[in-house]
Amino acid sequence: MPKKARELTALEVSRLREPGLHMVGSVAGLALRVAPSGTSRSWILRYSDPSGQRCDMGLGGFPDVTLAEARVSAREARAQLRQGVSPIQAARSARSAELAQRAASKTFAECAATFIKAEAPGWKNAKHAAQWGSTLETYAFPTIGALLVQDVTPTHVHDVLEPIWVEKHQTATRVRCRIENVLDWAIARGYRTGPNPAAWKANLQAMLADPQKVAKVRHHAAMAYGDLPRFMARLRKAEGLGARALEFAILCASRSGEVRNATWAEIDLEAAEWQIPGERMKAGQLHRVPLSEAAVALLRSLPRTPGAEFVFPSTRGVPLPDMTLSAVCRSAYFT
Q1: Residue 195: Cβ within 10 Å count
Q2: pLDDT grade, residue 303 (50/70/90)?
Q3: Is 248 a residue whose pLDDT tops 90?
Q4: Angle between helices 241-252 and 293-301 (to 10 degrees)
Q5: CB atoms within 10 A of CB 75
Q6: DSSP state of 201
Q7: CA distance 295 to 299
Q8: What pLDDT, on a 0 to 100 scale, did the predictor assign at position 215?
Q9: What is the mean pLDDT of residues 41-48?
């Protein structure tokens, strides 16, 4: 153990400007290191570790770390040495544990953002990802967004859902499922342990009203069967690709998105078949649609420019907007 130097005062330490190592006393091995420039100064504790190797342990810069603070840190390090512990290794272990804890301490909002970014490429469109983010930001984040994901409890999730459970039940159901998905992801990544607090069965089920008793199912009004011939007659008289797209959707019993995004490469007029790729189907599988004579005749009547990709393009050459078919339907039905 090095000899203790004369104990310097705080004023004496502040006047040390000569480059080199200056022992300051009170604690064996405690010194102020002055850089060759004379302007940068830092605290050093020189000691031999349990294996006998000489070590220089940094205790911080001066004057940010005062003489009194440096002496306290040096005494703590000396106490560790007496217990056979290397202060440098102990500090590294503590720092590593702190970084590991900090890396594992994610808020719900941080986990949600990372989850959406990771999952979005597998979703069918950007609108879905935007809806995920907006619903969580609107309904979940004000209550649990800033909470560490490990600290989210069923009571927190209940507090998110309860205000909208009756008035906006469909939205509340989606919010609950999305919170559950984010927390499942957090559990899988090791950011939290234990059961998922957003699970429905044997959990929120006991806190919130039965969905079947709360939600009032309101189906979209269907066109009367007897009105269809008159509607189709009006539709065939309507001009524009929007009218033709709606007519084609009816003839093929297809969804709006499938029709609006249909390409000529998917259609074989000779075989009277339309093959919709799996990535554009809700089930994710290739879907073959046999085309009736009326559907084939409609397709043959469409204007088609060389190199055109979409069957029903807008004026900008991209698929028709999603509201186009709805607008045409209302116009043909109510006029």
Answers
A1: 12
A2: confident
A3: yes
A4: 160
A5: 14
A6: T
A7: 6
A8: 59
A9: 89
Give me 156's structure tokens. 């927190």
End-to-end CA distance of the chain: 101
| Cis-peptide into 211, omega within 30 deg | no
pLDDT of residue 39: 81
Q: Which two tokens stand for residue 195?
A: 């059961």
Average pLDDT, the chain: 86
pLDDT of 217 > 70? The answer is no
Nearest CA to 110 out of 208, 185, 1, 212 is that of 185
Using 50, 70 and 90 to split pLDDT, how confident is the model at 141?
A: very high
Q: Which of 201, 161, 159 is nearest to 178 (CA)?
A: 161
pLDDT digits (tens, 9 = 90+) for 57-104: 888 899 999 999 999 998 988 888 888 887 888 787 777 666 656 656
Structure tokens at 88: 């440098």
Cα–Cα distance between 70 and 59 in angstroms, integer? Answer: 6
Q: Produce one character per residue of 48-63: b if its CB has 16 or more CB atoms within 10 Å, e if not.
A: ebeeeeebebebeebe
Q: How open is the CA angle 144-99-46, to the nearest 5 degrees?
A: 150
The answer to whether 32 and 16 are in contact (CB under 8 A) is: yes
Task: Name the token pair of 210.
Answer: 């039965």
Instruction: Write the Ramachandran bin of 321: left for phi over 0, alpha for psi from -120 to 50, otherwise beta.
Output: beta
Cross-strand pairs, 60: 43
- The tokens 């004579």 sit on which residue? 293
CA distance 177 to 200: 9
Grouping H, G, I as helix, E, B as strand and the rest as coil, residue 58 is: strand
